[in-house]
Amino acid sequence: MEVIxxxxxxxxxxxxATIIAAQIIGRPDSVLGLATGSxxxxxxxxxxxxxxxxxxxxxxxxxxxxxxxYGVAPDNPCSYRWFMEENLFKHINILPxxxxxxxxxxxxxxxxxxxxxxxxxRAGGIDLQLLGIGGNGHIGFNEPSDNxxxxxxxxxxxxxxxxxxxxxxxxxxxxxxQALSMGIKSIMAARRIILLANGKxxxxxxxxxxxxxxxxxxxxxxxxxHPQAAVIIDQEAAALL
Length: 241
Ligand code: GLP
Prior knowledge:
Blueprint: E1 2-6, H1 9-26, E2 31-34, H2 41-52, E3 62-65, E4 67-69, H3 80-87, E5 99-100, H4 109-122, E6 128-131, E7 153-156, H5 159-165, E8 178-181, H6 184-188, E9 192-197, H7 203-211, E10 229-234
Parallel strand pairs: 1-10, 2-3, 2-6, 3-5, 6-9, 9-10
Antiparallel strand pairs: 4-8, 7-8
Helix pairs in contact: 1-2
Bound molecules: 2-amino-2-deoxy-6-O-phosphono-alpha-D-glucopyranose (GLP).
The site of 2-amino-2-deoxy-6-O-phosphono-alpha-D-glucopyranose has 14 residues, from helix 5.
């Protein structure tokens, strides 16, 4: 696992955007795995700037997002679909039909998850997966558990995750209790992974991910086994290393 310590959030975001831009220039029909949360917002801003400068073209790029809240409609401002439209998609020339996010309103969640995996497979797999990390070490919405085997599935969110994500909702009781998330298996199948973390609230999870044992109790620790994983963190997130 390559560890890159950036001076600050701005530098981290620029570095992540540079890696993604290089991927798109090298392969214009790249398949990107994308993340939500506050961490990648700066990266998306830099990608939009690179697009506006004519340096990158998204017209052949496909994207698959990690997750979506269960029971939340795409036009709900708390949905991850909304987040992606606002922070990236509406500012670039990606084709709407090339942006995939699990359907939070699916009636048959098992079928939705199976089809999501099939779509990734049909697209040729994910070339570059962008990740954040939860304070409990989750990636996507893969909460601490007893195995690494899952493909896309319906997840029960941890109380800690509900609490952490309540800042995006009017109150904690409005945070959905479940989500559809790509699994650890789906994430590990990506050819290349970059995980971003900033701020001291992530320092413990970052330490455990890099230096701790590989255990599903700290889901991000599985990245130690990925041959092409890089972690880009700011100095605060690196404080315990
Ligand atoms: C959510 C998302 C994760 C994200 C995490 C951290 O739970 N499902 O993909 O990495 O939050 O969010 P933030 O970047 O806001 O700290």
